[in-house]
Structures are given as C-alpha cells and as structure tokens.
Write a structure and sequence with these properties.
With about 400 residues, the protein is mainly alpha-helical. It has one domain. The chain contains 17 helices and no strands. Helix 7 runs antiparallel to helix 17. The protein is globular, with a radius of gyration of 20 Å.
C-alpha cells in the first residue's frame, strides 16, 4: 500500500504542475472530474484518490504563481501576486518574485506541520464560541480591509461594485462561476493595461540570495491564517492583506507572506473538515465526498502527503520558473499578453459559456476601473465576501 500511495502522490504532483501552468484549469474542476470517475464505479481505493488530489492541490499552489506573475493570469489564491509580481518583473526581478512565493509556500508547509496538532484540539471550542457572530466578524474584517486603504472612498466603491457583481454571479448557477469573475477582475484587466501601455520586459536577473526579513511575515501568517478555519469566504488573499498590515512588508515580503498563507489556508481546510465538519475549499469538498470526515490517522497521512508534495514542488517550481523566464525573454511581452488574453477568453467560453464570457467582460471592466482609482486590488475580493455576509445575515 505504501508504494501505491507514493505513486499516487507523484501522479498528483505531475497533475498539479499541469493545472498550475495552464490558467483556467482549476484544481476544483479536476477534483470534480475525479469524483465522477469514482462514482462511476472505479475500483481504485478512494484513499488513493484523496492522496492524489491533495498532492495535486499543493503542487498547484506552488506552480500557479508562475503564470500569475509572468503572464498576469491568476486564479483564486494567486490574484494578489499579480500586481507586486508584475512590478518586480518590469524591474528584471521576475525570477525573484516567483522564488519568494515558492519559498513562502515551503515555509508554510513546515509551519502547518507545527500548528496542526495544536489547532486539532482547540478548533472545535473556538468555533462554537465564534459561530453566533460569524456575520459580524466578516463585517469587521471587511471594514478593516476598506479603511486600511489610503483611498477609503474609492476602496468602498470598488468593494461594493465587486460585491454586487459577486452576488449576481454566484446566484446564476453558472458552471465554473469563479473563473470568468476572478479571471476578469485580476487577470484580463492587468493584461489589457499592459497591452495598452506597450510594456517591455527587461532581461531578468538571477535570484541570488533573497534578502528579506522573514520573521515578521512568518509571525503574521501564523497568527492570521487560522481565521480561514472559522470564517467562510475569507480566503488567502484577504488573510494575506490583513497579515501584511501586521508585518508591514514591501512587495518582496508580501509575496513571501502570500506563499505562506496560501499553503496554510489550504492545509487548515482539512483541519476544519476533520474538527468541525466544514468544507472551506473545493479540495476539502472532494475529500469529504471520497472518505467522509477524516480521522486523526487519516490526517496524519494527509500531512505526510503535504510535506512530500511541498518539498518536491519547491524544487520543480525552481526549475520551471527559470525555463519560463528564458522563454519570456525571447518573446515580445505585448504579443504574449495578447495571446494569454485570447487563451483565457477561450477557456472562459469553453467552461462557462456565453453568459460566463459576458461576466468576464464586466469583471474586466471592473478591474480596470479599480486600477484607475489606484486602490488596493484586494478590495475586489468583495465579490466573495459580500455574498457570504448576505447569506449569514438573511
């Protein structure tokens, strides 16, 4: 059985590389396909599929930063890396940007191992204490995000517009509804502006030693990431933004922080499933459908899978980022941006149809408007927060 588990971990890592490199092929979509495969009567042990989907999701988190930073093609969880990563790319530091997120993910993997046993015992009582006030806590988190922005009125406008967009989109019963919305808000808007301004990318520097102060980012991520266990719709983007208010890091430090938070948020979703029977990510939904509520023994296997996948994914990302940088330096960035925009548009049409494509256009316009107001792009995460708050209030 050990050999089979290791084999499925390796297959999952390979799958995570593919889903991470190609925008639009979301890990949740792959998970849904695997569920159908199992439900059709597959003879494969569901536990092996769980190992596969977890290793795939961990690798996806690492590798997904490559297209997000180099192409401006984000998915949920990497959308906030686009702007700081893009700015570093324009300075010849694109490889450093990816290395920072990857190193953050690796740190996140080991921090998760340390925090897991502690939160396994304290999650249930904390959740019961906080449960009656979830909506209020979400409102407080939103207020913090808005009023910590320098341009508070603009931030409020963007938050409300994206919130209304999210409420409408998530009530349309649309296939892959997050794809056109997040792809437009955070991806296409950046691509269109880079095409318009005829951005040129300089020769990229080698990474060298990453001179950032890691301690503050580690502490901030460790303190704030557990929020994802207790509050629905609070994803890695919002947590990283709140965490950065504590750490007060610049672009490099924020990317490192975002890497840590992404892994912790994913890892904590399995803890939430085991301790309070709540699914906080698409991957945890798949795990629940396959094996139900994981026991502490199964959590041990999940942790081992996360460790192995994290270490291997870190090494893979290091190699892939260098290869992609070499390709990027040989191609005119404006043309590459146009090609990427076309590919994302086609993917949206395939998976979300005409209605999804219209949402993609509206979301793109909203993203451009947000950039023109010069407010933090985290305000557009209102597209997920507002619908959740409405759900809890009404």
């Amino acid at each position: 059985m050990l050999i089979e588990i290791l084999l499925f971990i390796l297959v999952g890592i390979g799958g995570g590389v593919v889903t991470g490199l190609f925008p639009g092929i979301h890990i949740n979509l792959v998970g849904a396909i695997l569920l159908i495969f199992v439900e059709k009567g597959s003879s494969i042990n569901p536990l092996f599929i769980v190992v596969l989907i977890i290793s795939m999701s961990i690798t996806h988190v690492f590798v997904d930063f490559i297209p997000s930073i180099l192409l401006g093609a984000p998915e949920e969880g990497t959308e906030l890396s686009v702007l700081p990563g893009y700015e570093l790319l324009k300075k010849g530091l694109g490889l450093q940007a990816i290395s920072l997120t990857s190193l953050g993910c690796l740190y996140g993997t080991f921090i998760l191992i340390l925090l897991f046993p502690i939160f396994y015992f304290i999650t249930f009582p904390i959740y019961n204490f906080l449960k009656p006030g979830v909506a209020i806590l979400l409102l407080i988190a939103c207020a913090f995000l808005i009023f910590s922005d320098e341009k508070k009125i603009g931030a409020l406008i963007v938050f409300l517009i994206s919130g209304m967009l999210g409420f409408i989109v998530l009530n349309l019963n649309l296939n892959e509804s997050l794809l056109p919305m997040l792809g437009g808000l955070f991806g296409a808007s950046t691509l269109i502006l880079s095409i318009k301004t005829k951005t040129t990318i300089p020769k990229q520097e080698e990474v060298g030693s990453l001179k950032i102060k890691k301690f503050k980012s580690v502490i901030a991520a460790t303190l704030i990431s557990p929020i994802s266990i207790f509050l629905p719709a609070i994803g890695s983007g919002q947590i990283a933004t709140i965490g950065n208010q504590i750490a007060q890091e610049e672009k490099q430090g924020f990317l490192f922080l975002l890497g840590i938070v992404n892994i912790l948020t994913l890892g904590f979703s399995f803890l939430a499933l085991s301790t309070i029977s709540k699914t906080r990510t698409g991957v945890s939904v798949v795990v629940k459908e396959l094996i139900g509520i994981p026991s502490w023994k199964l959590l041990g296997l999940i942790l081992i899978t996360i460790i192995l996948s994290g270490i291997i994914s870190f090494l893979i990302t290091k190699v892939l980022s260098k290869k992609f940088i070499k390709i990027l330096e040989k191609v005119e960035y404006q043309k590459l941006s146009i090609i990427t925009l076309i590919i994302i548009s086609i993917i949206v049409l395939i998976f979300s149809g005409i209605v999804g494509f219209l949402i993609f256009i509206i979301s793109t316009a909203t993203g451009i408007y947000c950039i023109s107001l010069n407010v933090r792009r985290t305000q557009m995460m209102g597209c997920l927060l507002v619908p959740t708050i409405i759900l809890y209030l009404f």
